[in-house]
Every structure is written in C-alpha cells, then in structure tokens.
C-alpha cells in the first residue's frame, strides 16, 4: 500500500537560484546538501530535491506539482506571494489554489487542502505531482495496478487524476493546463510504501527498470518517470 509522497526531485541547470527561490519565498529550510543536489523541507516529512542534470535519474523538467498548506493559512500565503508574483488563483469549490513559477520553469501550486489549525504561512507536504505520458490509458492502468485509485478524468480525455489518499498523481497527455502548466518529464519521485517489493511486483511486467538504491527500491515507468519506493 502507498501512503504518500516523501520527496520530489526537480532539475536545476543552476541549482543555487532555484534553492534561493524556495528558501526566500516559501521558507523551506535546507535539510541536506551533496555535490549534486540540495534538499528542502516542505513539511509533513516531505522534501523537494533540487538536482543538477549530471546523472541518472535527473530531476523533473517543467513539472507541475502542488504543495499543501492548512486551509486557514491559504490567505496568508496569497498575501505574501502576491507582492512578488503575478499569481493565478483557482477556486475548486472547497479548496483554493494559487499558481506561480520557479526559476527553473516548474509550475508551483500552493493548495489550501490541509487541515486547519493555523493561519501562519506554513506548508504540510507535497499534495500532487503531474506526469506527462504518451499513452494515457496504458499509464492509468500502470498506476492503478501500482496502488493508486482513479478519481477523475478530463472530459477531453487528456488527463487522469489518481490518488493514494494523502497524495495525488495526475497523468497528462501533452497539453497546457491551468496557468499554462505542463506535465513533468523524467520526473523522479519518492513514494512511501508498506511493502516496496509487493508494490513493484504488481507492475513488474511493465516497469522498464528495477534496482535497489540505498536500501530503497526504485522502478521506472514506461514514460521514463522514476518511482522510488521507500519502506
């Protein structure tokens, strides 16, 4: 069973300006550094990993993803970010989201989807990641077998939304979405799994790579996205 997103890797040709953007505007402290990447704390045990494009897997390019904040904190985030950015806002009826872009071209969504309790501008983890795929029905089948549940499909069938409960994946055929966002390519994401071996076995015939990495199990989907299953 999958239980959420532990981390998302984003590619930065120049890492420092991307890290500075998140530290300054979203107050994400650095949790670790290496020669290749810098990890940032986005709350609830989640990390953004800003990674140089000098190895495999690379971080995602032009990735649209969502950070969750407490519903009561959403207005504080909007007021804070509106001074520096031309924000796009969408009311989904029960949840509001704002959209802006980081220096690497990723579309960052801050969604007021978390439990209320504080009006301070805090973050509570990675709520959603959008992956660009070539064959939407085939990719939907891969991710449902992996443990996601389909909850929504676009009327024009260019996207499918799937969930594990605390974390959603949207699969997009190539197109521009809200705020002219695009699905990410060669995205690398860490998912918490009760039993990584069983999860990986469920898609063994279609995964294009499978390997142990630092005690975790990493697979690659048919579109080249890496999924690290963290026990």
Topology diagram in text:
Layout: E1 2-11, H1 15-26, E2 30-33, E3 37-41, E4 47-51, E5 64-70, H2 74-82, E6 88-91, E7 96-101, E8 107-114, E9 126-132, H3 136-146, E10 149-153, E11 159-163, E12 168-172, E13 188-193, H4 196-201, E14 209-213, E15 216-220, E16 226-230
Parallel strand pairs: 1-4, 5-8, 9-12, 13-16
Antiparallel strand pairs: 1-13, 2-3, 3-4, 5-9, 6-7, 7-8, 10-11, 11-12, 14-15, 15-16
In short:
The chain is built from four helices and 16 strands. It is of the alpha+beta class and 231 residues long. The protein has a single domain, classed as 2,3-Dihydroxybiphenyl 1,2-Dioxygenase, domain 1 (Roll).
Tags for this model:
231 residues, 4 helices, globular, 2,3-Dihydroxybiphenyl 1,2-Dioxygenase, domain 1, eight-stranded mixed sheet
Could you describe the 3D structure shown?
- With 231 residues, the protein is an alpha+beta fold.
- 16% of the residues lie in helices and 40% in strands.
- The chain is built from 4 helices and 16 strands.
- It has helices at 15-26, 74-82, 136-146, 196-201; strands at residues 2-11, 30-33, 37-41, 47-51, 64-70, 88-91, 96-101, 107-114, 126-132, 149-153, 159-163, 168-172, 188-193, 209-213, 216-220, 226-230.
- It has an 8-stranded mixed sheet. It has an 8-stranded mixed sheet with strand order 6-7-8-5-9-12-11-10, covered by helices on one side.
- The model has no long low-confidence stretch (mean pLDDT 95).
């Amino acid at each position: 069973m999958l239980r959420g997103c532990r981390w998302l890797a984003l590619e930065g040709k120049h890492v420092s300006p991307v890290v500075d953007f998140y530290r300054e505007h979203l107050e994400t402290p650095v949790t670790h550094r290496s020669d290749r990447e810098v990890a940032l704390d986005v709350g609830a045990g989640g990390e953004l990993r800003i990674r140089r494009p000098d190895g495999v897997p690379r971080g995602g390019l032009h990735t649209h993803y969502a950070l969750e904040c407490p519903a009561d904190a959403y207005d504080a985030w909007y007021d804070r970010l509106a001074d520096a950015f031309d924000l796009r806002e969408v009311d989904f009826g029960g949840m509001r989201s704002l959209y802006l872009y980081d220096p690497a071209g990723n579309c960052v969504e801050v969604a007021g989807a978390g439990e209320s309790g504080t009006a301070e501008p805090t973050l509570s983890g990675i709520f959603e990641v959008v992956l660009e795929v070539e064959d939407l029905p085939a990719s939907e089948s891969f991710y449902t077998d992996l443990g996601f549940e389909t909850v929504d499909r676009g009327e024009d069938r260019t996207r499918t939304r799937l969930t594990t409960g605390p974390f959603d994946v949207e699969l997009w055929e190539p197109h521009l979405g809200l705020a002219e966002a695009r699905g990410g390519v060669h995205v690398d994401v860490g998912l918490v799994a009760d039993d990584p071996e069983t999860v990986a076995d469920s898609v063994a015939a279609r995964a294009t790579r499978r390997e142990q990495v630092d005690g975790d199990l990493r697979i690659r989907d048919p579109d080249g996205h890496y999924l690290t299953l963290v026990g």
